[in-house]
Amino acid sequence: MDALQQLFVQIFGHDWGIPLSLLIKNLLLILAIVVPLLLAVAYLTFAERKIIAYMQVRVGPNRVTFFGISWLKGWAQPIADAVKAVMKEIIVPTGASKFLFIIAPILSLAPALAAWAVVPFSPELVLSDINAGLLYILAMTSLGVYGVIIAGWASNSKYAFLGAMRSAAQVVSYELAMGFALVCVLMMSASLNLGDIVAGQQGDSFLNWYLIPLFPMFLVYFISGVAETNRAPFDVAEGESEIVAGFHVDYSGMAFTVFFLAEYANMILVATLASIMFLGGWLPPIDMAPFNLVPGLVWLMLKIAFMLFFFLWFRATFPRYRYDQIMRLGWKIFIPMTLVWIVLLGAVMQLPESVQRSFPLNLWFG
Amino acid sequence: MNFQDLVFFTFASVLVLSALGVVTFRNPVYAALLLVLAFVTSSGLWLLLEAEFLAITLVLVYVGAVMVLFLFVVMMLDINLDRLREGFWKWFPFGAVVALVMAVEMGMVLMSRQFDLESLPKPVPKDIEFSNTKELGRLIYTDYVYAFELAAVILLVAMVAAIAITLRHRTDKKLTNAGRQIAVKRNDRLKIISMSAEKKE
């Protein structure tokens, strides 16, 4: 990297060489995050089809394979799906606003990828170690709804528009509960930096993770995350039975696939954030010999996979919520719950130091 | 010109162009989306000024919440441009006077001593550990605590008022009570009677 910087300084001079070499370096690092992420997205779709299939006593995709290797049957399915999607025609409906119609899927995928800039994979492995990391994550996840709204409006179709309206109201409602749940995490760790939040959960075992003291907030966060990603049982934005497929009813080919990718990328993001903020990120569950020898990245990935399994499990288990019940859950149950917990946590934090140093409070506050 | 200047001028020109678009576009949805672009670029400008908390909060609050609701409303409006343009010339002098007053006021503020580049000290770049979230929090909750609390109360009043305006007491609505639904027993709904088997005559 130093050699690259020197080369750039020689070519472009001091003022331009250093920023340009930083730009190239960051682009390479971004690729190093985004390419594995998109692969993970592809195989998450495969995992979903397989897991839901087994839950419903089916087999799932079991035909497409690499180079005819028989024990890999089904594993090339995501690749085949991607190739199929690229080959298909993108149909722009009459009366649609063409520019917005094309840009909407991009707007829904971009924030889901951009949020990964501040995610710490292990103590040193983070692209951008900024102070306001948590705030940045909240800002990025709140941008994701634009893709859905713009798609619904640009399609010039009533079904798509209804889906967009539902999605906008739902996402804005659940963002509040999500934000409040994260305020609790921020109060516990006294930092907005995601690396510091994980470091604050360091201890002898999983008892130190914020999962234990903030368990209700963990539930609120995760359920709000499911609602934010428009996944079952909160997928009224799609609602096949009443509005066909919601906001992406008029999309085809790659444009539709990008929406699909965005949904799965968002799922992975929510699972990652839940692991970082409540399940101790890269920390091993018990800080002793066989466990702490495993690299932190492996623990993080295991936790992410564990959380992702819940998304798939929910989809296979629960029927879709009715719209008014979604709103009731968000506004009348989650938001009051988070408000009470914030006040309670504040009161505990104001306790005299001697009380905080006694068991069990010393696990998290001492 | 160095790299930072390039970034600044890119953001600044996008900001000015999108702000112009907001007032010139006919279609209100495009205007609202350009306003979103203006917010995002101005947050980029704030990041250049090392105000990361304000920059991200601008995106979080205005782009992520306020503009979503705004778009929500604008998209549902069925706007007839011909009716909107009725009486344009009748109100033009009034609008022109308001615009002129605003321009003069802004000019008076921007050309005053406080905004004079010579009298202002050059901002010193802070080191990487400096958290302006923390600094801002300290200021808001110590020096400006009354102003802050007052703003919060005013917002709360506005919120309560908005809810009160939309609240209508309808007598004919049917509400489901989830608690009662769950508490229903089999015997509340179903009656099992014993009946002798029917014979075909």
Rg calculated over all Cα atoms of chain A: 22 Å
Name the helix and strand elements of chain B from N-terminus to C-terminus, one letter apiece.
HHHHHHHHH
Count of DSSP H/I helices of chain B? 9
What would you say the CATH architecture of one domain in chain B is? Up-down Bundle
Overall average pLDDT of chain B: 85
Beta-strand share of residues of chain B: under 5%
Rg value of chain B: 29 Å
Task: State the CATH superfamily name of one domain in chain B.
Answer: NADH-ubiquinone/plastoquinone oxidoreductase chain 6, subunit NuoJ
This entry's quaternary arrangement is heterodimer
Poorly predicted ranges of chain B: none
Structural class of chain A: mainly alpha
CATH domain class name of one domain in chain B:
Mainly Alpha
What is the molecular shape of chain B?
elongated
Helix content of chain A: 55-70%
Number of strands of chain B: 0
Give the DSSP E fraction of chain A (strand runs of 2 or more residues). under 5%
Give the strand tally of chain A.
0
> Could you name the ranges of chain A where pLDDT drops below 50 across 5 or more consecutive residues?
none
Alpha carbon gap, first and last residue of chain B: 105 Å
What global shape of chain A is seen?
A: globular
- Give the helix level of chain B as a range of percent: 55-70%
Write a structural description.
The complex is a heterodimer of chains A (366) and B (201). Chain A is built from 15 helices and no strands. With 366 residues, chain A is mainly alpha-helical. The longest helix of chain A has 42 residues, at 14-55. Chain A starts with a helix and ends in a 10-residue tail after the last helix. The radius of gyration of chain B is 29 Å and the shape is elongated. With 201 residues, chain B is mainly α. Among the domains of chain B are: 1-79, NADH-ubiquinone/plastoquinone oxidoreductase chain 6, subunit NuoJ (Four Helix Bundle (Hemerythrin (Met), subunit A)), CATH 1.20.120; 130-167. Chain B has helices spanning 3-24, 28-48, 52-76, 81-85, 88-110, 132-141, 145-166, 178-183, 186-189. The chains are: A mainly alpha (366), B mainly alpha (201). Chain B: Keywords: Cell membrane, Membrane, NAD, Oxidoreductase, Quinone, Transmembrane, Transmembrane helix. Chain B: It catalyses: a quinone + NADH + 5 H(+)(in) = a quinol + NAD(+) + 4 H(+)(out).
